[in-house]
Amino acid sequence: MFEVEILERIARLEATIEEIKTLRGVPGPRGPAGSIEAASENARQAVTDAEARVQAKANQAYEKFTAEIKKLRQEVDEAKQFMDERIHNTVDAHTVQVLQDYKLINEKGEPTRWNK
């Protein structure tokens, strides 16, 4: 008889525990409502803090963006300078070759008798 009573109490405790598990997401009783001004000020402060965080992230992103743009511009300038030098050297070499082909300069780059 004592065992039956213990088993019943265990069953009720288990049922209570299961009921408490289902109530986990249900809010408990609340106190009296607070001041509207305090709630408004808290909301304003939360918005201000959120704006500050967003602005800080935007500033960081903009700094990264400007740094990448600066780097790209430098690479473009270097590529342009390289291409200008290549074109200049190619034109010079071609001009020298044409002058040599027409026997206006010799292999040393000196004028020939046709050019004097």
Describe this structure in words.
It is a single chain. The chain is mostly helical and 116 residues long. It is built from two helices and no strands. The protein has helices spanning 2-22, 36-101. The chain is elongated and about 135 Å long.
Provide a quick synopsis of the model.
This protein is mainly alpha-helical. The chain has 2 helices and no strands. It is elongated and about 135 Å long.
Mean pLDDT: 88
Distance between the termini: 136 Å
Rg over alpha carbons: 43 Å
N-to-C series of helices and strands: HH
Decide which structural class fits the backbone.
mainly alpha
Low-confidence stretches: none
User: Helical proportion?
Assistant: over 70%
Count of helices?
A: 2
Overall shape: it is: elongated
Total count of strands: 0
**What percentage of the residues does DSSP assign to strands (E)?**
under 5%
What composes the largest sheet?
A: none
